[in-house]
UniProtKB/TrEMBL annotation:
It comes from Gymnorhina tibicen. Belongs to the SRR1 family. Keywords: Signal. GO terms for cellular component: cytoplasm; nucleus. Residues 1-158 form the SRR1-like domain. Coiled coil: none annotated. InterPro entries: SRR1-like, SRR1L. It comes from the Eukaryota. The keyword Nucleotidyltransferase does not apply. This is SRR1L protein. Residues 1-37 form the signal peptide.
Length: 193
């Protein structure tokens, strides 16, 4: 399965078109049928939604705010240039070694997020990203001069079960839903906004 968040207005934006093209090539390479790929972006126009359906892709009916569970199935999350809260929510909704080990994320570098944020902000606002840093493997996509703005800071992330099981048991105890009340730079569109 595949879930794509935050693709953007590909009808207007060349970078979003390149990201869509890469997604389609990736689905083909991984032999994931388009019908098993669900997308959501609150910015999609009616024409863009119709184009995605014509490609055989599915649209999620509502804004999940990134809170999509893997439900026991291996799932690729394609989230290029999404906000930190979406990644944090995704991790929270799959917060167990069994679920996280079935998850692959193509999106913003977690190591880059760690480097750019003060540790107290990372731990306060994006605690699930902070907690999983020692349990994630990450490989950056190679840079290409033509697509620097399209895929910069993009990595493939996966969560090996053995690494997750090495984390302290206390890491798994806290399962409080992220609220972002004190977050100054929240990069997420909430339900109903």
């Amino acid at each position: 399965r595949c879930v794509c968040y935050g693709l953007g207005r590909f009808g207007r934006c060349p970078a979003a078109r390149y990201q869509l093209a890469f997604l389609l090539l990736l689905l083909d390479e991984l032999r994931v049928p388009p019908a098993r790929c669900a997308l959501f972006d609150p910015a999609f126009s009616a024409r863009e939604a119709a184009a995605l359906r014509a490609l055989g892709l599915c649209l999620l009916p509502e804004n999940e705010e990134g809170k999509h569970g893997v439900e026991g199935a291996a799932t690729l999350f394609y989230m290029v240039h999404c906000g930190k809260a979406l990644y944090n929510n995704l991790l929270w909704s799959n917060w167990s070694p069994a679920a996280l080990s079935k998850l692959v994320i193509i999106g913003n570098s977690f190591r880059g997020i760690e480097e750019r944020l003060l540790s107290r902000i990372l731990e306060r606002d994006y605690s699930y990203i902070a907690k999983v840093l020692k349990g994630v493997e990450e490989v950056a996509l190679p840079n290409h001069p033509r697509y620097l703005d399209t895929f910069n800071d993009t990595s493939v992330h996966w969560f090996p079960l053995d690494k997750l099981q090495e984390l302290s048991p206390e890491v798994w105890d806290c399962v409080e839903e992220p609220m972002y009340q004190d977050c100054e730079d929240l990069e997420i569109i909430r339900k109903g906004e």
